[in-house]
Amino acid sequence: MALLLASSPATASHFLKALNSGLAELGWVDGRNLQLDVRYGENDAARFRRLAIELLALRPDVFVAGNEPVAREVSALTKSVPIVVPIGFDPVGDGLVQSLARPGGNVTGFSILTYELIPKRLQLLKQAVPGLKRVALMHRPGDATLDRVLKLLAEPARNLGLAIVPGEVRDEADLERAFEQVARQKVGGITGAADSFFFQHRKRMADLAIKHGLAYSHTSIESATAGALFSYGADSGALFRRSAALVDKILKGANPANIPLEQANVYELVVNMKTARALGIKLPPSFLVQVTQTIE
Question: How far is the first Cα of the chain from the last one, in angstroms, to the nearest whole number?
Fold first, then answer.
């Protein structure tokens, strides 16, 4: 069995633990009746492909592709090895599967409504900071989803009285410059595109946001834990744990073409109260009533 995670061991090893925990509950133990080969992509698309080739050469019975960008690389290389995707952004729209109910190929897993939740996250940011006027959308050069995300944000932003300011980040060394640039544009809040780069560098993102007095929202609970003002999205760790059940089905002979993709059905609003205090933000009751978890 192969596992290719998009980011680094330091920031994504808990996904491996969650998957192993779920597998153990079903009787699959690495080193006993299962061999699990793991690689980390370090947010490098070229590395995704290279590592996918390396892992496929080991002839795995199942390939767990950490998120959708990884899955696209693996899917382009094999139509026979079953692929499980714990974090699918838009598996149907991006052509990984025919439909959620009938995948029809060698890919199954979970869909987390990545794009559908973008307007909701913007609305929550405005609710958290009612005086907000400008929000920076952080992204990386060549992000193929940028136009789609900007279109999704256009109408909600108008309705909320917000201007969306793109903020480009080349790499980790460029983060300080990128934050200084958006801060000069008088933005009051930031959010990130669907890119594992922002997940991997979540602590640095959160620290820079606080430094520049910016309310930072993101999709992952891990980002709120690292210091973002809040996160809104599915619990990715839980999805890795639940992915074990799909792996189990495949190892017992099920065809991924006939295993419906599951829609993540719980989306958590996690707020970091320490960050709110550091930013001098008094969160309104209308926002707090929606919170499912607080970090002190």
Answer: 39
